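Retry 2 of 3 after timeout on previous attempt. Resubmitting structure tokens to design endpoint.
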């Protein structure tokens, strides 16, 4: 019989599928990039991700990530194991979301990680206790506020040549566009698109200094279809032109 709890290591190999049962992925180490039904999320240590039954999802970890996965059994498992917490437990499993573990939940998770979870009794009772604890904890108390700026920077750099929208970055953060815009401005003091433009121009400065690429190609690599528009943006932002910058270096 397959254990409902398993320890898994994720790499840069993309995994994409769906299954007929709900799943909870607990982050142990590293960072795991997830997309659930088109909405992006970043899972880190001391966090969990809920994947509802039937939801198409994809994940990868460029730097490697270790997780514990809870495959929630179908049928009457919730009612037989969770008792009065079953309704809240089902409600928790109905929506994709990332939550943070409380200290007591983290201690229980650590105990399970170091226990023989291939034992169905330990796995079943431990998973039920952890889920009951999550079901009785209001989501507003576990939500994290910080944005994954390192992942956003990497995404912007990788897609600098292509059109970028606030919605693209919001999906990576697991937020709606409006909520992401407000939180991003609060955390960085800039609008998302101002941040993207500044990041692109910083990348352009690096390419102009460190390579011999034609100015037009540098412009295209950072998302400008017009060399003149790129030159004007660089002059506005840094007070210099590509020719002046290269003459200085």
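Retry 2 succeeded. Sequence:
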């Amino acid at each position: 019989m397959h254990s409902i709890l398993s320890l898994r290591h994720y790499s840069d190999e993309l995994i994409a599928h769906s299954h007929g049962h709900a799943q909870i992925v607990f982050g142990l180490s590293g960072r795991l990039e997830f997309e659930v039904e088109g909405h992006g999320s970043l899972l880190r240590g001391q966090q969990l991700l809920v994947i509802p039954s039937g939801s198409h999802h994809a994940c990868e970890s460029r730097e490697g990530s270790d997780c514990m996965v809870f495959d929630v059994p179908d049928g009457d498992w919730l009612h037989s194991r969770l008792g009065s917490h079953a309704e809240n437990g089902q409600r928790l499993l109905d929506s994709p979301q990332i939550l943070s573990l409380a200290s007591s939940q983290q201690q229980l998770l650590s105990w399970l990680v170091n226990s023989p979870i291939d034992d169905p009794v330990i796995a079943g009772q431990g998973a039920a206790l952890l889920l009951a604890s999550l079901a009785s904890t209001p989501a507003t108390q576990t939500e994290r506020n910080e944005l994954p700026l390192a992942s956003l920077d990497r995404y912007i750099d990788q897609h600098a040549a292509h059109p970028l929208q606030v919605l693209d970055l919001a999906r990576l953060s697991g937020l709606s566009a409006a909520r992401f815009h407000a939180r991003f401005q609060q955390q960085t003091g800039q609008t998302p698109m101002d941040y993207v433009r500044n990041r692109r121009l910083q990348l352009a400065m690096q390419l102009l200094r460190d390579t011999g690429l034609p100015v037009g190609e540098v412009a295209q690599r950072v998302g400008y279809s017009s060399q003149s528009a790129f030159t004007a943006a660089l002059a506005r932002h840094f007070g210099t032109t590509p020719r002046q910058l290269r003459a200085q270096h």
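Attempt log closed. The mean pLDDT is 87.
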